[in-house]
Amino acid sequence: xxxxxxxxxxxxxxxxxxxxxxxxxxxxxxxxxxxxxxxxxxxxxxxxxxxxx
Length: 53
Hints:
By secondary structure, this protein is an alpha+beta fold. It has one domain (2-52). It is 19% helix and 53% strand. It is built from two helices and three strands; from the N terminus they run αβαββ. The protein has helices at 2-6, 21-25; strands at residues 11-17, 30-39, 42-52. Strand 2 and strand 3 form a beta hairpin. The two termini are 13 Å apart.
């Protein structure tokens, strides 16, 4: 990924939507937590994901 080449660190973290989760999993990220977020009274699920070198 371009980000990893531009900013080399030991740990990357993202909060990925249900739709984006497979994209990040294909790039080596793992789910560490499932989150329930409320926006304008609507409950949304996303996932905290991490990738280490």
